[in-house]
Design goal:
about 350 residues, flat, four-stranded antiparallel beta sheet, about 25% strand, alpha+beta
């Protein structure tokens, strides 16, 4: 999920795991008992799931170890139909949905880390066959009715796109934390320049609870930060591409650093760099301080007092969430103070000080 690997299913019915930056093939299947049509990553479990057919044209699913694609960890035969199976995986609930093309069936399984890995739960049947499938991101689900997944079925018989919701039956109207863990937010964790430079990072997480904020604010990075993070020996072409003729390449920076030693203005440059980093790192905290006047996006000074027990419980949960955020801010501030103290100490101990 950090963008470091890419899995493909090709016309030769093989699975390949590639490095998306260099295009190098890292793993490749050589299994004669499974011909792959579709493949996907199962979140952070280091597993791959593929749908395809056996040598006798029996539709089946196969589970693979992404570090060893010589043989599948698990294979399960489904039926003898000919339509391609579309797989969909929900990382938050560990649910796998398989929907055959040209049929009105959707089977769903629970994925575990122990054998037999896939546990069949139930299936949905419709008289209208689907030609294509799409899904709604988790941020668009209706949490008030405990909706955990939503399909959009392309039904060509009636020229329509039919929504199909997967709902967990719950009587309580309160927010269900057990079926709605932290999920990927709409903000990107990395910029294109950072990803090209070789950085990997998991998605930013957010809560589906109404009024919640992103748990990790996206970093405010510049071309200078990206250039300093590049290893010139591994990615020399990325250094040239990121700079774009505006920032010196790695060799010029090194030569410039050597020439500046002993210069009477080296100390001033160090102070300017120090203040730049300090401003950049404290900018997200300034945003958090602005939101600290709000409780989950709601201005407490303008909120009406709770009138029912349910509203009182919701206000209580909002206050608990706000207290947790404030504690996290205090802890991050203490860590930042220690980092600044170490940087000041290193600055005083440097030879050019």
């Amino acid at each position: 999920m950090d963008g470091s690997l890419l899995a493909t299913a090709c016309k030769d019915k093989k699975i390949r795991v590639l490095d998306p930056r260099s295009g190098k093939v890292l793993q490749e299947t050589d299994c004669k008992t499974h011909r792959t049509n579709k493949v996907l990553f199962l979140g952070n479990t280091r597993r791959l799931l593929s749908t395809g057919t056996s040598r006798w044209n029996i539709r089946q699913t196969a589970l693979w170890d992404q570090d060893d694609l010589s043989q599948p960890l698990h294979q399960e035969d489904l039926d003898g139909a000919s339509g391609i199976i579309f797989p969909f995986y929900d990382h938050d609930t560990h649910m796998l949905y398989v929907a055959p093309k040209g049929e009105g069936i959707i089977r769903y399984y629970e994925v575990s880390t122990e054998k037999p890995f896939l546990h069949f739960l139930a299936e949905h049947r419709s008289s209208l066959p689907q030609k294509g499938m799409g899904v709604m991101p988790k941020r668009g689900l209706d949490v008030s009715i405990c909706e955990v997944f939503r399909f959009y079925r392309l039904v060509t018989n009636k020229n329509l796109v039919e929504p199909l919701s997967m709902i967990v039956p719950r009587r309580s109207e309160a927010y269900q934390d057990d079926i709605y863990p932290m999920t990927a937010s709409s903000d990107s964790a990395l910029t294109a320049y950072e990803w090209l430079s070789g950085l990997n990072k998991d998605p930013l997480l957010t809560s589906l609870k109404p009024g919640s904020e992103i748990s990790q604010p996206p970093p405010q990075s510049t071309d200078k930060d990206i250039l300093c993070s590049i290893n010139p020996q591994k990615h020399p072409d990325h250094v040239e591409r990121v700079t774009g003729g505006q920032i010196p390449v790695y060799g010029e920076l090194k030569e410039h650093r050597e020439q500046s030693r002993g210069d009477e203005k080296a100390l001033e440059r160090r102070h300017s760099m120090f203040s730049y980093r300090d401003h950049r790192r404290t900018e997200p905290r300034a945003v958090d301080r602005r939101y600290s006047l709000l409780a989950n996006g709601c201005d407490l000074s303008q909120c009406a007092p709770p009138k029912t027990e349910n509203e009182l419980l919701q206000m209580f949960y909002k206050q608990q969430e706000e207290i947790r955020k404030l504690r996290d801010m205090v802890a991050q501030r203490e860590i930042r103070i220690k980092q600044l103290e170490l940087e000041v100490k290193n600055l005083h101990n440097s030879p050019s000080y």
